Amino acid sequence: MLARFITKHFGGIPTKFSDLKWLIRVNPESPNSTPQAFEYRKVSPGNQPEYQPPKTEKLFKNRYYEKDTRRQYPQTVVFSPNDVKLIGKGDSFEPPVINKRYKYKASAPHLDPTGDAGNPEFSIRAVE
To answer: Where does the record place the region Disordered (predicted)?
Structure first.
């Protein structure tokens, strides 16, 4: 008699803990308390293309910010009236270069890493 009551009202005798989730939840249609990865990751690591370093570059020029896709924030581009006129005419117009956040210049040119200076293994660089 008890088994028939449980089957009728609860769908059967619970055999595992996941069958008792309805006891914990107020809304049985609500999602789990632990979010899935696709719910909070904007760009999942598995979907990013693998970084292909240029074959001619040295290994020490493998900079992290060039591969980092999470921090490539949208940047504002301002067009001058002359640029807008060129776009409207259909002339060849080169869009402005954005993402110049990391522009390096040599702070000690006498320590040139190309081998022209006295110390080819050392170079100090500064960010503009």
So the answer is: 30-54, 107-128
Mean pLDDT for each consecutive 10-residue tract of the chain (128 residues)? 78 74 64 70 71 71 71 71 78 65 57 52 50
Asked if residue 90 lies in contact with residue 79, where contact means CB atoms within 8 angstroms, the answer is: no
Three-state DSSP string of the chain: CHHHHHHHHHCCCCCCHHHHHHHHCCCCCCCCCCCCHHHHCCCCHHHCCCCCCCCCCCHHHCCHHHHCCCCCCCCCCCCCHHHHHHHHHCCCCCCCCCCCCCCEEECCHHHCCCCCCCCCCCCCEEEC
